[in-house]
Structures are given as structure tokens and as C-alpha cells.
Amino acid sequence: MWIKGGTILDPVSGMTQVGDIHIKEGIIAGIYPGGKKGKAGDVIDAKGLWVLPGLIDMHVHLRDPGYEYKEDIISGCMAAAAGGVTTVACMPNTYPVNDNPSVTKYIVEKAARHTAVRVLPVGALTKELKGTDIAEMGLMKEAGIVAVSDDGKSVENTSLMRRAIEYAATFGLPVISHCQDRYLGEGGVMNEGDLSSRLGLGGIPAASEDIIVSRDVLIAGYTKLPIHITHVSTRTSLDIIRKAKDAGISVTCDVTPHHLLLTEERVRGYDTNAKMYPPLRTEEDRLALIGGLKDGTIDCIATDHAPHVKDEKDLDFDLAPFGIIGLQTLLPGIMEVHKESGIEFIELLKRVTANPARILGIDGGMLCPGARADITLFDPGARWIFTEECVLSKSKNSPFFGRKFQGRVVRTIAGGRSIYQA
Amino acid sequence: MNWPHKDLIAIQDLKPEEIGHILDMASSFKEISKRDIKKVPTLRGKTVVLLFYEASTRTRLSFEIAAKRLSADTTALSASGSSFSKGETIMDAAYNVMAMSPDCIVIRYPYAGIPKKMADLLPCSVINAGDGYNEHPTQALLDMYSMKERFGTLKGLNVAIVGDIMHSRVARSNVYGLKKMGASISLVAPKTLLPPRVETWGAQVLTEFDPVIPHADVIMMLRVQKERLHDRFFPDEREYSFFYGLSKRRVDMMKKDAVIMHPGPMNRGVEITCDAAESARSIILDQVENGVAIRMTLLYLSMGGTSNVD
Question: Which of A45, A256, A398, B52 is the most buried (most CB within 10 A)?
Fold first, then answer.
């Protein structure tokens, strides 16, 4: 298969050039800047399009097993493909929890049977996500997990958190930490501040995140082991991570597109599609996050794709579950950040390709001969409106409905096979 | 004045002249309750459904009496006797009620935002009778009416609101309304019961009660909910009432013509002592009386009334 005439963007080499890509047996066989005469086999005309490595989303909830009415591996991967995402790391808060090799195997095998999207399970850090006993990380690694996390909560017991980090490192597994002090934000449903007071909604103070980020960073520093902080949402958390990095602590972090594009103002009107954890914060926080992308403090952008069906979301703001879907708005969202902030697109691209690959210790996220042929074709000029009808997930919970985006995924190739076409 | 609102959801949505209009109209409605035959045909043939998903004595009764005095038909539904206890969502309940063609739904609900959602989605009028700790607009209107009745104007009035500001929709609606009408407001509470960033509300915020007393024209005490004690917002009732309760000693410090208000229900001995509640300064029962007139006014305005009442 040939992809001809597109602008090839490779975040690893920094290449931004029109050229042709030759794919053979699921692998990139050759890249020809300026193009290559003659063609053999399938040819995809990519004129006017950007040719990107398939995206890697390191924070996704596929809800399978257990909550297949919200999403399953098949529907989630269709949404991923439509978003140009060819690799997803899926979180363990399924039912049963992915805290043992049987569940891991189920996920890996179902994905292998039904989708060309690479599904990489994240195992639980503690059994049943209860924060009391360390999960079978070693056996789960054998079965295919790429990281461990108790996403959805923090491990409260600091001693256990330290042991979990040390034990995970024994097997070379990255630890992904969701940072939330359980008590400080208890009963909260949005960012705590002027607006929560005015709307009469319970607040989640920024400090409830900052406190656990500092704790986890300190543990990482003390044990000299790596930690990855997921969905950073506050200015202070970012400052803590920046200082830790400067001090040589092995800490990395990611941010969601919605925290880069929206603020707590979106909660006015009590739209439950603006309810997620961590909550949308202030404009000051949002700008700080963009600053963190600029100066490299933020390593990755990940969606925290969290499907919930309409009748769950269509409740009172206080009672509706936290979370929104995000796979299909990831790349257009990044485009918007690029236009607003002036950060080079290829720099942002790195945060959804090469960087998550490095942190998870997996291949992919680059375009070079010998690399896996996971490729996304993106029309950077296309203007479109994201609506419920666009959604391929089983759940349609997004705060971006009605938003005008620029840039659209037109084709996704995984393992050398075309798996999505607009 | 041509009344532009289908619904009454929040004091924040009202202009000062609209609040003035409601308060003016309420006087003529108040007179109806003093008649021998307390009923006018104004809303004959209209159906008012009272959906009360949270305990209420005064507000519910007040709305019901108000509607009946205007000849509307009323039906009341509470959470325990409805399908809510079977797990029906509030919006499903609302659509079902709507299918029976009411002209107005009065809703009290334990969480913020639902009355607004109903108002946006339903064709009938929706009146917020209190949602979570967001707003309680009719309470603020009857409070403002009671103050205006006593002092002639709200402009320049010093109003102290004391107690659990954080969890109080009454405080919020009163702050929004009184500010629009030119009153000065002091909020008094321990820091644990002050809402985050309360300093942006445009009120004076104090943690000490005594200093505001000699200047206040109105002291409005808020109920302390027992469950706050379990949530450790303050150590115990004894300490709370010592620092934030309206006692005889504090009543004696008040200005000569200053008044005491309380939205009810009172916890005697906690935020207010019996002496204070029953003192000549208390206009707590006037508030209840005026509540009927305010709610008659709002039912009338919401259901399309524009002309003056006779």
C-alpha cells in the first residue's frame, strides 16, 4: 500500500515534508520525501492531507467487561479509529476490575478478535481498586498489561502507595496516578470557587488534587522511581510537577483536551456533560496548562474517554456520574490548542504519539521505516461541527456537541490496514 | 408593567424594577387575605401542581393557599408518595406531569439546577420553591417585602444574615435581591459555614456577630441544620449558640427599631433563643403572612397576568 502526496509529520525526527509512504505487511517499508515515481498495489491519495503516526491515547475507559451498555471494546475502538487513535490504554475500573490475569486476558483476546486498534490494558494497582492490597501486577504483565493504576481514586495509604510503586517497578510497569484527596473534595461536583458558591453546587478544591500530586511526587523522589500523574488540572499541581522535574525526579504527566479548551464556566446551566473528574477549572488554570504544554512540563495529552449513557447523565448535576467521551474530538481539540497557543502542531502531536509510547514502554508513535504502519490521515483545513450523530461510542456524553472544529480525521490505518474512512 | 417571564427560577434573573413591581403588587394581594371571603376568581380554571421533593411546611402550604385564594386548582405531590421513591427520575416525573397540562409547576428539589432545567424544557410556568443550596427566590421576595413594609424602603437598609450561609439558598437569594435593591448586607458565620470566595458577593463578611448588631436594621437568622454537626462544621450546639446565636443579650444590643427575621423552621436554643424569637422585634410571623401575598403575586404574574388586580 502507498500513501502518496501527503505532508508527512513525524514527531520523532521532526520531519514535516510532502512525500510518499510505502507500507508492506503491516510495517512501514519506506518513506520517500518528495515522492517516488511509479506505484504498485493500493494507492491512497493524500494530497492536501497531513500524514501522522496513529495516535496513542493513554487514558481511556472501554467499560468492557461489565458495563457494555456504556461502551465495549468494539464500539470504543470504532470511536478511537474515527478519532485517528490506533492505540488505547484502557483503565481497570471494569466489572470485574482488571486486577487479575483472567480479566487482562479477556480484554486482550477480545480486542485481538474484533479490532485492529491496539488495546493495551492498564491493570489495577490494588485489588478491586480498594487501596488495601497490591494487585497481581506480575501475572497481569504476563497477560498483557502495560501499566498499573487505581484510576478513579488515589491510594489513600501512603505506605501502600510507596510499596505499589516499588513493586510495579520490579516488573517495569509505569504507575499512573489519579490524584484526589478523598476527604477534601467530598460531596463536590465542580471546581470549588466563586462559581460553585453561586450555583449552589458542592466544590472540589484545587488543593485536593495538589496535595496528592505533591505526595506522589515526593514518593517518586524518595524511592527514585518514576510516576505518571494523569489528568493534571490545576496551576499548582503543574508547578509542583515542574519543580520536581527540575529537581531530577522522574515524574511525567498528561492533560485532557477538555481541560485545555473549557473552564468551569461551562457548568453554568447545569449541563451534566460539563461534569467530570477532575472538574473543569478556572481560566487561570487552563492558561497554566497551555503554558505547561509550551514549556514541556506536560508530556502527554490523553482523553480520559469516559462513556456514560444518556439516562445516567440526564440526572441532576449532583447525582450524574463524572466523565465525558473524548476519542473523536482529540485531534480537532489539539488543532484548536495549536491555533490558540501558537505551539507547533508537531510539538503537540508528540504528546499523543512518541511521548505516551515512551512512558508506556511500547513501540509506535513515529513514522520511519520499520515502524508499525499505524497512520492517521488528517485534513487540517476541514471545518465541521461535532454533533451527536458523529459519535461512534455507545454513549453520547460530550460537552463539545455543537462546537465548530477545524481539522478532521479522514482515514485511519492500523497495522497496515485501513480501519476507518470518513 | 408587562411581565416578561414565564418562570421564576432565580432572583439573579430579575431586574431591580421587576422586584419593585412584585413588591408593589403584593400589597394588593395581601389585602385579599384580610377579607371575609378570601377568594378572587383571577386564576379560575388554571392548574397548579406542587412538586415537593424535599420536606417543607411553610412554603408548600403558602403556595397552596396562595393558589387557592386565586381560585386555581392545586395538586401537591411529595417525594415519599410519588414514583420518585420508586426510582423515577425527576425529568421523567416532570414530563408526566406536563402531559396532564398544568399551567404552572411549583418545584422544591434537594439539588441545584433542576427548576431551571424544567423551565427550559417545559411549556408551562415553573416557579422555584427552593433548589438545593442554589436559590429560594420567593423566600427572598417575601423577606424583602417584609423589610420594605417595616422600613418603607430597602435602599440603604443594613441587613445582617447570620448562620449557615454556605448551605443556604435563602441567604443567596436574599443577597442577590437586597443588593439589587440598594441594601447593604453583612454575612456572619464561622469560616466553615461561609461559601468559598464569598468575598466576591459584594457583602461585608464577618466571623464575629457582636460588631454588626448595633448597626443592623435587620438581623436575619438562618437555621442550623443538625446534619452539619455530623459533618464537623462546628464542634457542638453549645459553642455555636454562644458565638452565633441570637440571645437576649444580643437582642438588647440592637438598634431601637431594628427587627429580627428567620425563614423557619427555627431551632430554638441553637441559633435563636425563645426570648429573641418572641420579642417585640420579631417579624417572623409577618414573613409567613407576607409569603402568601408574594406567592399569589408570582402565580398571577407567571400565568400571564399583566393588568392590575382589583
Answer: A256
